[in-house]
């Protein structure tokens, strides 16, 4: 920091001696003439504000400006005032009973040498935990300077590059060898606990700020309301802000903004105070063995009896205990993160949660599971749990809650990681984490509604009446789980899942790519479909629901998959029960009604499921008795096995408390001007491509410049994003498709001298909304959660959407930062886009094109039909187009599949564009994969699937069937 020379220091051990040495040091420094700057308006504050409240003169810090200044009477007065402040601060702390909040020495700190001090990357729950210890993780951030300053920086002194580490709890960055230098400037992390054994009668209930200097800071100063950004701030060594790592309040680093009384005031713990567990609740207790007390009681005769009592106490002793202070508005949160879920998302989330919360309320499930943490916090009133992982992680936590028998059981919220996540979808948390701000997620956890989730027991016993000849040596006699929360299924889906798991366990190195996993999964499913391995399922099962025998109905249906469903979602978001509507025999599905839905699937209904169809509704019941006569693949909440002939009883176990994500309208803060929400909003919609989003999403202004306007929508002021989506889709329908070479355009409003103009390229089906209101960057919003977000929450004067399949076209006048845009010299009118085209004109032009293609390239189709591979290859090398179609829309790949020539099929796949794999003919809407499956050409099916053909494409017959089922 420029010219800073006073250092805010924390009190260490032997506080009075430390104070005496501080006063002596101050006097010696004044005799030498220390470099002080007058702290006036616009002047900076001292550069280090660790735990502690004393101000002492010190040597100049990094980047000192102006050299050694002369002593003035004003500086002498300020020095004298600072010495008086030291004493007054210490007296104030002694009177207030806040000694625990002062930097306290750890009991074992004196026993550790600097060489033995380890660099911790996790929270230390042992007896030797150090007060104010940092939690380090490696970082490669280039713009952050070492926090210890140039004077103490080892890398600066040695002129060598060193790796950097960042503290998850207070976000300071230092070089790895500079971590020890933090002791010299006495900077500690925010305290996560307090010491027991305080002699104060009053227990401490407030938390002090933990002030940290920042060279870069988002947002605005709490005092003056101005921003912290400076011109040419990148690589600036000047400290611009002082912020609290608890409440996140920030001030300019000058006396006019940050005043001395801010040091003494209690911290509110910020926007998430209701879910933060204060460090005053977490006590480190001493070991029961006390040498002083034991020496006084040596004369007791019942030594053996006393030692026998002491043993169990020592076994139950824990270094930390929780002493909560009941507060009706608090909802303390425990966060459990599964780092194995969702790639590397879990590890990054732990670091972010430690910044927003107390690090001692964030737990890594790979370090022993959730049981110890839940036992420690079991007496905390209104406790809530956030499970970060998949549905299996949630089930694990719920099973531990069952074991501990907490009353009432704390409700569980979900932050979904990875894929699937049907339970998270059911409770409105979405199918997976994209990049929503964790601060927003914490608000949703706090404000979410508590709902119940039925949980079901699975009691398995062998079927002694089964035919011994049907016994399978590879089958097991028990299920992987005896409780399920989502579903229990048997048949086709379980067989595919089991084959995938067995293959992955046998060759784990081949399953390190999510895309390859999906391809293998799809190939296995298609192979089982062709083999019909589950077509005889109905012959080997007997199902009795609430005393009603469903076996005859199941045998008539001949399903290949049977599902007992507890929640509406299944198979990564599909809804197999659907909406019964006017069907009086069945009720809409609920996850808290104590009923299971029994659903059968044929292969046709399984295919229709992906496009909005549903299975065959069989029953809604409270108890099921399932009997199998042979080994059948089964899965419990995604965990597969092959179970031998058995009798399985399914019954209600209990109901778990869950947190359901809800809209936040009632809790939204009012704007500064207290204006009500307008009745109608007129808002411009702009599109951003994935390439620009990934490259520029930390630079909001550049990303706005790179956006492509789509048009203007008018919606009610309280509209959610689902309604906005329909308006945007309608906006797209207003413009007919046109070739990209024509680039029909119309101007947008309010874009200055060079207006942005709209291309005719429509949004892809995978587009999503972006939250543009946060200070640092744009964030994606999960499509499944659009009904929970209001348009006014994510946008200000412009609504941004992300199109992952945006085609980046470059035309004359188009800048690289503005894809698919041109500058138009004259103002085009809407007539350019809305000029009517007669159907006859369209059909004539199409017939002319088809006839010309037929005359030119029919020899290529003939070669494919006649199985003449050599001629086909020569025609293609001579310039014939592999993408041509005949009069019915069939491609050369369709004809090659019909003829069954594997060589021609393979040649087309290797040499034609990938689009040919999903091109459908006009009569039935069949792709080449549909045709190969119909003709039962298994090898060709494998070729097409492995090349990347979509398994979600449906022909016209499947679409007509699913539409009829919905009706």
From TrEMBL:
Residues 1-33, 288-317, 812-849 are annotated as: Disordered. Residues 294-309 have a biased composition (Basic residues). InterPro entries: Ankyrin_rpt, Ankyrin_rpt-contain_sf, ATP-NAD_kinase_N, C1_DGKzeta_rpt1, C1_DGKzeta_rpt2, DGK, DGKI-like_dom, Diacylglycerol_kin_accessory. GO terms for biological process: glycerolipid metabolic process; phospholipase C-activating G protein-coupled receptor signaling pathway. The keyword NADP does not apply. Pathway: Glycerolipid metabolism; Lipid metabolism; glycerolipid metabolism. Pfam families: Ank_2 (PF12796), DAGK_acc (PF00609), DAGK_cat (PF00781), DGKI (PF23578). One of its GO terms (molecular function) is ATP-dependent diacylglycerol kinase activity. This is Diacylglycerol kinase. It comes from Anolis carolinensis. The gene is DGKZ.
């Amino acid at each position: 920091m420029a010219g800073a020379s006073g250092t805010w220091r924390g009190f260490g051990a032997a506080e009075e001696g430390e104070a005496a040495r501080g006063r002596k040091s101050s006097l010696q420094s004044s005799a030498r003439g220390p470099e002080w700057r007058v702290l006036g308006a616009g002047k900076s504050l001292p550069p280090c504000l660790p735990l502690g409240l004393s101000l002492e003169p010190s040597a100049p810090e990094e980047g000192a400006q102006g050299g050694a200044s002369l002593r003035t009477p004003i500086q002498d007065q300020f020095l004298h005032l600072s010495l008086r402040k030291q004493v007054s601060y210490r007296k104030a702390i002694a009177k207030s009973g806040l000694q625990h909040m002062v930097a306290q020495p750890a009991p074992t700190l004196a026993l550790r040498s600097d060489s033995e001090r380890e660099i911790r990357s996790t929270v230390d729950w042992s007896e030797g935990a150090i007060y104010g210890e940092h939690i380090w993780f490696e970082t490669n951030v280039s713009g952050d300077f070492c926090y210890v300053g140039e004077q103490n920086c080892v890398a600066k002194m040695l002129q060598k590059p060193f790796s950097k580490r960042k503290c998850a709890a207070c976000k300071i960055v230092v070089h790895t060898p500079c971590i020890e230098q933090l002791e010299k400037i006495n900077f500690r992390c925010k305290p996560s606990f307090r010491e027991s054994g305080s002699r104060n009668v009053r227990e401490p209930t407030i938390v002090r700020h933990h002030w940290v200097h920042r060279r870069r800071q988002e947002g605005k100063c709490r005092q003056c309301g101005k921003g912290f950004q400076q011109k040419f701030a990148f690589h600036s060594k000047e400290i611009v802000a002082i912020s609290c790592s608890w409440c996140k309040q920030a001030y300019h680093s000058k006396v006019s903004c940050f005043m001395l009384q801010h040091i003494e005031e209690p911290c509110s713990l910020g926007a998430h105070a209701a879910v933060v567990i204060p460090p005053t609740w977490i006590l480190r207790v001493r070991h029961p063995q006390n040498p002083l007390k034991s020496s006084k009681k040596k004369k007791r005769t019942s030594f053996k009896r006393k030692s026998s009592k002491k043993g169990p106490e020592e076994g139950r002793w824990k270094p930390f205990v929780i002493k909560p202070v009941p507060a009706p508005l608090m909802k303390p949160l425990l966060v459990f993160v599964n780092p194995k879920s969702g790639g590397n998302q879990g590890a990054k989330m732990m670091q972010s949660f430690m910044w927003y919360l107390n690090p001692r309320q964030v737990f890594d499930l790979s370090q022993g599971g959730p049981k110890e943490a839940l036992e420690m916090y079991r007496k905390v009133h209104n406790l809530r749990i956030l499970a970060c992982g998949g549905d299996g992680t949630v089930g694990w936590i719920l099973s531990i809650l069952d074991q501990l028998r907490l009353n009432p059981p704390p409700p569980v919220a979900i932050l979904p990681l990875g894929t699937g996540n049907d339970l998270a979808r059911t409770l409105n948390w979405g199918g997976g984490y994209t990049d929503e701000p964790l601060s927003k997620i914490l608000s949703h956890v706090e404000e979410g509604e508590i709902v119940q989730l039925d949980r079901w027991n699975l009691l398995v016993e062998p079927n002694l009446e089964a035919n011994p000849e049907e016994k399978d040596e590879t089958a097991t006699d028990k299920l992987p789980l005896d409780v399920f929360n989502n579903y229990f299924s048997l048949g086709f889906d379980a067989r595919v899942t089991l084959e995938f798991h067995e293959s992955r366990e046998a060759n784990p190195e081949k399953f390190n790519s999510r895309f390859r996993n999906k391809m293998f999964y799809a190939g296995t499913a298609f192979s089982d479909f062709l083999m019909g391995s589950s077509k005889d399922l109905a012959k080997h099962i007997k199902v009795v629901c609430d005393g009603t025998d469903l076996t005859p109905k199941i045998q008539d249906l001949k399903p290949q998959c049977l599902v007992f469903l507890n929640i509406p979602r299944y198979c990564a978001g599909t809804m197999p029960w659907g909406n019964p509507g006017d069907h009086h025999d069945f009720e809409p599905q609920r996850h808290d009604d104590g009923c299971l839905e029994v659903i059968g699937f044929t292969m046709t209904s399984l295919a229709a499921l992906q496009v909005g169809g549903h299975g065959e509704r069989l029953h809604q019941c409270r108890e099921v008795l399932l009997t199998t006569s042979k080994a059948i693949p089964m899965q419990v909440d995604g965990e597969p096995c092959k179970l031998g002939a058995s009798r399985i009883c399914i019954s209600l176990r209990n109901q778990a408390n869950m947190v359901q994500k809800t809209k936040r309208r009632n809790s939204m803060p009012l704007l500064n001007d207290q204006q009500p929400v307008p009745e109608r909003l007129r808002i411009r919609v702009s599109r951003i491509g994935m390439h620009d989003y990934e490259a520029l999403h930390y630079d909001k202004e550049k990303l706005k410049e790179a956006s492509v306007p789509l048009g203007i929508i008018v919606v009610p002021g309280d509209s959610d994003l689902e309604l906005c989506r329909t308006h945007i889709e309608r906006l797209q329908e207003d413009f007919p498709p046109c070739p990209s070479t024509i680039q029909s355009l119309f101007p947008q409003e309010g874009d200055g001298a060079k207006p942005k103009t709209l291309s005719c390229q429509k949004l892809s089906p995978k587009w999503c909304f972006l939250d543009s209101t946060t200070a640092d960057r744009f964030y994606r919003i999960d499509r499944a959660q659009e009904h929970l977000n209001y348009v006014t929450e994510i946008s200000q004067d412009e609504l941004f959407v992300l199109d992952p399949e945006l085609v980046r076209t470059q035309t004359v006048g188009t800048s690289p930062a503005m894809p698919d845009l041109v500058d138009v010299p004259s103002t085009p009118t809407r007539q350019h886009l809305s000029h009517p085209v007669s159907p006859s004109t369209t059909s004539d032009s199409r017939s002319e094109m088809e006839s010309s293609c037929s005359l030119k390239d029919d020899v290529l189709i003939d070669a494919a039909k006649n199985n003449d591979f050599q001629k086909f290859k020569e025609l293609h090398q001579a310039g014939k187009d592999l993408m041509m179609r005949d009069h019915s829309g069939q491609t050369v790949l369709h004809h090659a599949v019909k003829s069954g020539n594997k060589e021609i099929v393979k040649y087309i796949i290797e040499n034609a564009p990938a689009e040919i794999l999903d091109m459908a003919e006009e009569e039935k809407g069949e792709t080449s994969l549909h045709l190969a499956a119909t003709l039962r050409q298994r090898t060709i099916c494998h070729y097409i699937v492995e090349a990347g053909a979509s398994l979600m494409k449906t022909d016209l017959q499947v679409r007509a069937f699913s539409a009829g089922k919905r009706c």
